[in-house]
Design brief:
This protein is an alpha/beta fold. The chain is 28% helix and 25% strand. The strands form three sheets. A seven-stranded mixed β-sheet has the order 1-2-7-6-5-8-9, sandwiched between helices. A six-stranded mixed β-sheet has the order 10-13-12-11-14-15. Strands 3-4 form a two-stranded antiparallel sheet. Strand 1 and strand 2 form a beta hairpin. Helix 5 crosses helix 8 and helix 6 crosses helix 7.
């Protein structure tokens, strides 16, 4: 990578640097047919000692790379100015692909080794199953083309509707395809009375947290369409967990089951006490969910004092303010869990 970057003209490097967004992710849009996919580039570089990180042209270097390590500048010292990013070479290593088909969107993540390097969030189109499968296949092909790779292994799970024959269609994109369900053998012992009803995304998120923190007592929280809180004991046993309505579901229920309450956006102010109907609803929903998760963690720490919480979604809940134990955030826990199965 270093040699490739040095061979590029300085003007091209500077142009690339100037186009970087003000966040750790750069969004590019790929168009194929009628489908537009937001491609979030986590990192286009192999993550290693060089520690290449996205650069914020307005506010300086990003503090961490995608693996959570401090960024290193060209001098190799933590906190230095990151090396400028560059376009990928024409071909890079063969990679793994993970697909998480949820209720409202599909998340596609590319892995090089154990680290995610690119991700696509694909909203479900209002189409039939076959057309949705077409959208998914187009997204897989576009991502491979964008990062210049072919897929080695592919792991996927689904909690939403899937098209007939989707498993066979995914075989076109990788020689080895694994579908995770609640009945799939994994390194975790699943003590769930009805494993055939266990959401594969819950099991995958648990595997992802264990991959990042082996041997720990973990509460894995995923805030999506529904909120799931699952407990893993000693990094070996999936004990079980809770399911409750997600943020949008709670907001919509207040609107749908009353005559006067409006449907509001989740984003916005949520003080301790609402000062109008909008902030009262938002505070009630978000503070209630915050307390729900914090209470569960507090009760678990009585029997598992070294409990740690892993959050796969719901950063806006400000859980660090109320949790009685350490909090870690990784938006790719489900994908990491799926990818970990490909290494077995």
């Amino acid at each position: 990578v270093r040699a490739y970057m040095q061979s590029r003209p300085q003007t091209a490097q500077q142009a690339r640097q100037d186009n970087v967004t003000k966040s750790k992710k750069e969004t590019k849009t790929l168009l194929f047919g009628r489908l537009a996919v937001n491609l979030h580039l986590i990192s286009v570089f192999r993550l290693g000692d060089t520690g290449f990180c996205p650069t914020d042209s307005a506010h300086g270097p990003a503090p961490e790379d995608v693996a959570g390590r401090p960024c290193r500048g060209q001098t190799g010292q933590s906190g230095g100015r990151p090396a400028p990013t560059a376009e990928l070479p024409a071909t890079i290593a063969i990679m793994n692909l993970t697909i998480d088909i949820g209720n409202t969107r599909t998340k596609i993540v590319a892995f090089e080794g154990g680290e995610p390097i690119a991700a696509v969030a694909l909203s479900h189109p209002d189409k039939d199953g076959a057309q949705q499968a077409d959208y998914l296949e187009n997204a897989i092909a576009a991502l491979a083309q964008r990062i210049g790779t072919t897929w080695n292994d592919l792991a996927w799970c689904s909690t939403g509707k899937t098209a007939d024959g989707l498993a066979e269609r995914l075989q076109r994109h990788a020689p080895h395809v694994l579908r995770l369900t609640g009945l799939t053998p994994t390194p975790l012992r699943v003590d769930y009375a009805t494993p055939h009803t266990l959401g594969a995304d819950r099991l995958a998120a648990a595997l992802g947290a264990v991959a990042l923190q082996p041997g720990g007592d973990l509460l894995v929280v995923d805030v999506g369409t529904c909120v799931t809180c699952d407990f893993i004991e000693g990094g070996q046993r999936f004990v079980g967990g809770n399911i409750s309505p997600g943020i949008q579901m709670r907001l919509r229920a207040l609107h749908d089951y009353t005559e006067a309450l409006p449907l509001i956006e989740a984003d916005g102010r949520w003080p301790l006490l609402g000062s109008d109907t909008e902030t009262a609803i938002r505070a009630g929903v978000l503070l209630g969910l915050q307390a729900e998760i914090a209470t569960l963690a507090q009760r678990l720490t009585k029997t598992h004092p070294n409990l740690q919480v892993w959050l796969a979604g719901g950063e806006s809940l400000r859980l660090h303010e109320v949790l009685p134990c350490p909090l870690h955030t990784d938006p790719h826990l489900v994908a990491r869990g799926l990818n970990s199965l490909l290494a077995i």
